[in-house]
Amino acid sequence: MSEIDSAPYRIAAQPYYRPVGNEVDLYTAAYAARMPMMLKGPTGCGKSRFVEYMAWKLKRPLITVACNEDMTAADLIGRFLLDINGTTWRDGPLTLAARMGAICYLDEVVEARQDTVVVIHSLTDHRRTLPLEKKGEVVEAHPDFQVVISYNPGYQSLTKDLKPSTRQRFGAMVFDFPNPDVETEIVAHEAGVDSITAVKLVEVAQRSRNLRGHGLDEGISTRLLVYAGRLIAMGIPPADACRTALVRPLTDDPDMQDTLDAAVDTFF
Ligand code: ADP
């Protein structure tokens, strides 16, 4: 079979990623062992950025799939499409990644139904194959292929979880929001704000994170801090930027909004 053009999936420029521990070494070793990996952690804490950075560093193409509950196995594997010439097989992202030797990143994997996720099983054990039953083909994964999944354990419910048989195919790396100094550095860099502003934004986020389980499901993420910083960098008054990018997206509860607005006013 002819080589697949991986150019569209290559990351040309180095993504900015600020390591927070030994995750780069750990992932490099896991990739060398072709161990499927799961990245666990709250939304907006840097998991996707880390995968982009690692794909760039390891010089591998990256195919990302944002999982959702309507996703079917065919959306991952591929399907026959009808056109004027009859039916043509179109590889799905998982098949494409397996053929190409890409890193296949299934983002928010628990959003997908469990019976959809099981299609990765044969690719994530010693077989490293993917049967395309409708096409009558068994794809042997390229030696460089790897599966990475991410999920947020905070959202977990009985209906949204991974089967034990899926879990036990992966090594796991735990992500969380970085310590305040590192998060300040990230926010200043990504948003283009001075470090005094970034320190204040991080302090607001920390207040919100202390409210987890006391009226808030999740605290303010690094992603939201970067958004708020960008508004400030564009000249929006900081208190307005924080209300728009940090507080209003997080909660609809008026009392909680008041509490968080008060935290914003303490710092800005
Ligand atoms: P997740 O995939 O965990 O939901 P992302 O990787 O999309 O989160 O992170 C959200 C944003 O936070 C990124 O776009 C980036 O601006 C910033 N970010 C978080 N952690 C880091 C980090 N360690 N280095 C660089 N940027 C980071």
The succession of helices and strands, N to C, reads HEHEHEEHEHEEEHEHHHHH
Which structural class do the helices and strands define?
alpha/beta
Any low-confidence stretches, pLDDT <50, length ≥5? none
Radius of gyration: 21 Å
**N/C terminus separation:** 61 Å
Query: How many strands appear in the DSSP assignment?
Result: 9
What is the arithmetic mean of pLDDT? 95
Content of β-strand: 15-25%
The helix content is 40-55%
Could you describe the largest sheet, including whether it forms a barrel?
A: 5 strands, parallel
Number of helices: 11
General shape: elongated
Domain ATPase dynein-related AAA: 37-170
GO molecular function: ATP binding; ATP hydrolysis activity
InterPro entries: ATPase_dyneun-rel_AAA (IPR011704), CbbQ/NirQ/NorQ/GpvN (IPR050764), CbbQ_C (IPR013615), P-loop_NTPase (IPR027417)
Keywords: ATP-binding, Nucleotide-binding
What can you see in these coordinates?
There is one protein chain. The chain has 268 residues and is α/β, with parallel strands linked by helices. The chain has helices at residues 23-32, 47-57, 73-77, 93-100, 114-117, 164-167, 180-191, 195-210, 222-233, 238-250, 254-267; strands spanning 37-40, 62-66, 78-83, 86-91, 103-107, 129-132, 137-140, 146-151, 171-174. Helix content is 41%, strand content 16%. α7 (180-191) crosses α8, α8 packs antiparallel against α9 (222-233) and α9 (222-233) packs antiparallel against α10. The protein is elongated, with a radius of gyration of 21 Å. The mean pLDDT is 95. Adenosine-5'-diphosphate is lined by residues 16-18, 20, 41, 43-49, 178, 186, 190, 222-223, 226. This is Nitric oxide reductase NorQ protein. Keywords: ATP-binding, Nucleotide-binding. Residues 183-266 form the CbbQ/NirQ/NorQ C-terminal domain.
